[in-house]
Amino acid sequence: MSNTTPTNGSAALAIELGKTFQLIAQQMGNYLQDNIIEMAKDPASLHTFTDDQSRVLSYSNTFFSLGARLAFQNADASIAAVQEATKAINANLNSIQKTDKWINFAGAVITLGAAIVTGNFGNIVGSAEAILATFNVKIP
Amino acid sequence: MKRYSLLLLAATVVFVTTGCVDLKGITAFSTSGAKTCSVLPAYGYTRYCFDSCYINNRDSPYVPGRCDLSHAVRYDTILHRESAQLVAYFNALAQLSGSDAVIDVDTIGGSISAGTYGQFTVTATDVQVFQGLTTALRDLLTAGVKSKDIRQNLQRFGGEVAGMIDSLILQYSALDGLTGNLVIGLNTQLIVYGVRASPGPQRYAVLYAYNEKIGELKDADAQQQRLIAQLSLVEKGYRQLAANAGNLRSKTLKQRLLALVNNISFLSGKSNP
Question: Which residue ranges of chain A lie beneath pLDDT 50?
C-alpha cells in the first residue's frame, strides 16, 4: 500500500460520537414508550424529558453532519475523556430507570455535546467526568 | 524437434491454466466491487433534507417551498461521482484481470470541490482521496500487461483507492445515522401524541400517518445499512488484494476474495453469480 493514504480519523470519531448520542436518544425513547402513562401525569417533567431527548438528537445530527470539522482533533486528553465517557455510557445506559435520573444524565450529555462542538476542552473533560459520576466510574 | 514441441505444449498449458485461472478471484471480486459501488441508496441526502426540514421544525407554520434542498442535491451529486469513479476503477480491474464479460468502463469525468454544502462538508482530504482514485483509474486504463500492471497499480495507489471506499462508507454511515435519528424523533412524537390526543378518527389518521412514515424511514435505514456492510466487505477485500499485490496468484488470496464475493452476494439478497 502507498504511504500517502489520507486519513479520515476525525470523521470516523465524529460518526462514533453521533452513534453514541443516538444510542442515548434511542434508550430515552424506549424508556418513554415503557413509561408514557405514568410520565403523562407530570406534563412538565414529560416536556423536559422529550426536550432533552430532542437536544441529544440534535447533537447526534451535528456529529453526523460535521464529521471532519471536530475542533478537538489533536487534543489527546479531551479525546481520552470522551472515549472513557462513551465506554461508560455503552456499558451502563440500561441502568438508568427513573425519569429524574434520565433528565440529569441527559443534561450532562448535552453539556458534553456543546463542549465538543465549541471545542471547549475544559468543559469536555468536566462534562465527561459528570457522565462517569452518573455511573460511579472515575477517569483512570 | 518433437521434444521441443512437447515442451512448448506443456508451457502453453501451464500458462493458460496459471495465467488466467489464478486471476479469477480478482476478476470476480472486482466485478462484485463494481456492482456494489453502483448501488446508490434510494433515500439519499436530498430526501433526508426534505424530511428533516419538516420533521425537525414541527412547531413552525407550514410554508410551501420553505426547504432549500440545493445543497443536499449538490452533496448527493458528489457522492454519485465518487461511487461512479469506484465503479469505473473496479470495472477496469476486472477487465485487466481477464473478465470475459463486456464491461463498460465509464470515461473519467467530473471532479469534486472542498467546501461546505449546507450542513455537509467536503474536506480537503476527501478531494485528495478522490484525485488519488482518479489517478489510479487513469493508470489502470492505460495498462496493458495483466498481472504486472495490476501489481504496480495496487502498490502505487492501493492506499488512495481503499481511502475512497472508506470515505464513502463514512458518508453513508453519516446518512444512515441521520435517517435513524429521524425515526427516533418521530417515534417520540408518535408516543406523546398518542397519549395526549382524544380517541377518534383524527387521532387514528395521524397515528397511521406517523407509522407509515416511520416504516418508510426504517426501510431506507435498512437499505443504507446493507450497503454499508457490503462496502465494508469490498474495502476488506481490496485491502487484502493490495497487501498481496506481490503475490496475486496466491491460492489463499483467491479463496479469500471468492469468499468475500459470496458474502457480498448474500447481503444483496442475490445468489452467487
Answer: 1-7, 68
Continuous segment of H or E residues that includes residue B117: strand B115-117
Please identify among residues 13-52 of chain A the ones whose CB lies closer than 8 Å to any CB of chain B. 15, 18-19, 22, 25-26, 29, 32-33, 36-37, 40, 46, 50
Candidates B192, B218, B228: best to mutate against A (most CBs of A within 10 A) is B192
Domain membership of residue A140 (yes or no) is: no
DSSP assignment of A56-83, as one string? Answer: HHHHHHHHHHHGGG-TTTT-HHHHHHHH
User: Is A73 in the B-facing interface, judged by CB distances under 8 Å?
Assistant: no
Neighbours of B91 (CB within 10 A): 26
Task: Parse chain B into domains and list their residue ranges.
Answer: 26-268
In the predicted model, what is the mean pLDDT of chain B? Answer: 82
Let me know if residue A1 belongs to a domain.
no
What was the ipTM of the complex prediction?
0.86
| Average pLDDT rounded to a whole number, residues B65-79 | 84
Residue of B nearest to A37 (CA): B195
Is residue B205 within 8 A of residue B129, CB to CB? The reply is no
Q: Is residue A103 part of a domain?
A: yes
Concatenating the DSSP letter of every residue in A1-61 gives: --TT----HHHHHHHHHHHHHHHHHHHHHHHHHHHHHHHTTSHHHHHHHHHHHHHHHHHHH
| pTM of the full structure | 0.84
